[in-house]
Amino acid sequence: MSDHSALLIIDVQKAMFPVGDGVYKGETVIDNLQKLIRQARTEGVPVIYIQHDNGKGTPLERGTDGWHIHRDIKPLNEDLVVEKQTPDAFHQTHLESILTERSINHLCITGMQTELCVDTTTRRAFSLGFDVTLISDGHSTFDTDHLKAEQIIQHHNDLLVWFARTQEANEVDFCEIHI
Questions:
Q1: Whole-number Å distance between alpha carbons of 111 and 120
Q2: Rounded percentage of the chain residues whose pLDDT exceeds 90
Q3: Cβ neighbours, 10 Å, residue 47
Q4: I need a surface site. Which of 7, 15, 113, 175 has the fewest CB within 10 A?
Q5: Phi-psi region at 6: left, alpha or beta (left = phi > 0; alpha = psi -120 to 50)
């Protein structure tokens, strides 16, 4: 078991998975997250959920139905939940202090949205000195007017190698992560 790793799940909330629409390979991402969560819990690796509050009147407004973590990956009592209001999971949150208190120096990053919160948090984690693994098939997004979600995800998997190693979910072995 790696005593120094954590699985970070960013913004995988109900509103991010609209019924019948949107999230590129959403079911696959949820399946991959379920496997990673099971493995992390088995190995004693902390699972940390990041939960976005986008403000009053939005689908991700704190306390609304859409704000809750996706039902298929709900946190357990021993899991940690960190609330945020910006794309950066470290900005004005207690995430860094949680990681420091637990001597965590390696993060496996997953979640929503690739080009926003996943990208920003990956870069910030690297800048703060964390060793980062981006789970290349553990994050997703939506099509935009200019790019397909698949293109956005591939672009970020390619670009973020400057800040993290990339690894597919089925390749992750928390026992093999040596810091």
A1: 12
A2: 90
A3: 22
A4: 175
A5: beta
